TrEMBL record:
This is Uncharacterized protein. It comes from the Bacteria. It comes from Bradyrhizobium diazoefficiens. The lineage of its organism: Bacteria, Pseudomonadati, Pseudomonadota, Alphaproteobacteria, Hyphomicrobiales.
């Protein structure tokens, strides 16, 4: 496998070509972070909120498994593209979808990876598939071809394009809020 930073950069470029340009930030740092169970992307800004840095944290075990590394780097590329805090169901679903359907991971390999997704990732994937089946260019259209954070996409916009009110509301919820509604006590 190429260096993880090179792979991440290529996934970000592919995501930009598919879903529109990334948010403006100066650089991306890929950091091995011990025993974290779930990788994540964090953004840092300066005092003027102009210069941003995306920091992708991956568990060290990721670097020992090429397939897992590619899956997780593709997933985090979507968060680097236009991540928002809190993360919405739309963003998490798209990250899961892209991690299974890109220039490196596809076909039988994607099917094998999809079979080992946890219940939560499977649910996000089902949500984004509902959107993309109805409206294949939804993400690029909703981002207006520009660098718009996923968190700025509104329920009314989705409904205006023919998405059901129920699906639009779920896609715009934060993952934490949706998780709490689906799994009380979590």
């Amino acid at each position: 496998m190429l260096k993880p930073t090179t792979v991440l950069r290529r996934f970000i470029e592919e995501a930009e070509n598919t879903y529109g340009p990334k948010l403006r930030y100066s650089s991306v740092a890929l950091v091995p972070e011990g025993e974290i169970s779930n990788p994540f992307t964090s953004f840092c800004t300066d005092e003027t909120n102009q210069s941003r840095m995306a920091i992708v944290l991956l568990g060290e075990r990721t670097f020992a498994d090429e397939a897992l590394a590619e899956y997780q780097l593709a997933h985090e590329a979507i968060h680097c593209l236009a991540g928002s805090m809190p993360t919405t169901c739309l963003e998490e679903g798209l990250a899961t979808h892209f991690s299974l359907h890109n220039s490196v991971i596809n076909g039988d390999r994607a099917k094998r990876l999809e079979n080992v997704l946890d219940q939560e990732r499977t649910a996000y994937l089902a949500l984004i598939r509902q959107l993309l089946c109805k409206w294949p260019n939804a993400i690029r259209d909703l981002r207006h071809g520009g660098a718009r954070p996923f968190g700025e996409i509104k329920i009314a916009e989705l409904v205006e394009y023919g998405v059901s009110q129920e699906l639009a509301e779920i896609l715009c919820k934060s993952t934490d809020e949706w998780r709490t509604l689906r799994l009380p006590g979590s």
